[in-house]
Please model this.
Amino acid sequence: MPVNARESEPVSPPRPSPPPPSAPPPWSSEPAPVPRAQLPIPGSASLGPATTELASWNQAIERVRREQPRHGKSLSFGRLIAVGPTAVRLAFAADAGFHRATVFDSGRAVIEKLLSQHYGRSLHLEEESDRAAHAAAPRSIAEQEVEAREVRESAIDHKVRTHPAVASVLRILGGRLEHVQVLEAAPVPAGGDEPPPAADEEA
Model:
C-alpha cells in the first residue's frame, strides 16, 4: 500500500567559519603587526627634548638660581638641546655671548656640580653651536620670562591709558600720557626674610 510522504527540502551544509588569524610563531624574526591607529604620522615627531625632560630642566635651573643667582641667570639663557646620561647639551643665541661665556667658562665647575646633584649623576656641559639646532630647540626660560614681562607691561599700559580717571585728568589738564613705567617688586632675599629696616638717623 503506497504511503504519501512529503519529501523534505534539501538542507545546505553549514558554511565553514573562517580560520582565526594565526599569530606569528615565537621563533619568527618578523615583528608583530602594529595597528594602523598606532603608526606614527610622517613628519609628526616633535623636535627637541620631551615635556618631562623640560620640566626637570626648569627645576634644575631654579636650583642653580637659588644657590648661585649669577650663574643661574646665565644658565637660564641657554636653550636645552638634550640631557644625556653624562652630558647636558645647550645652545645660546649669538647675542648672548656673556651668558655663554659664564656657563662654559667661569661658571662651568659650579654649574656642573649643581646639575649633577639635581639629576643624581655626574654631568658635564656641552655646547651646541649649530644655528639650526638652536632655532629648533624650545625657547629658554629667560626668553619666556622676557616675553611674559612684555605681555604683562603691554596689558598694564593699555589699562592705564583707558582708565576713566586718567582720561578725566588728561581732559581737564589738557596733557598727554607719554609713557607708562611698570615697576618690578624688589627681589626677596634667598632666606625668605624681609630686608631689615633702615636705621633712624640721629638728630
Observations:
- DSSP finds seven helices and three strands in the chain.
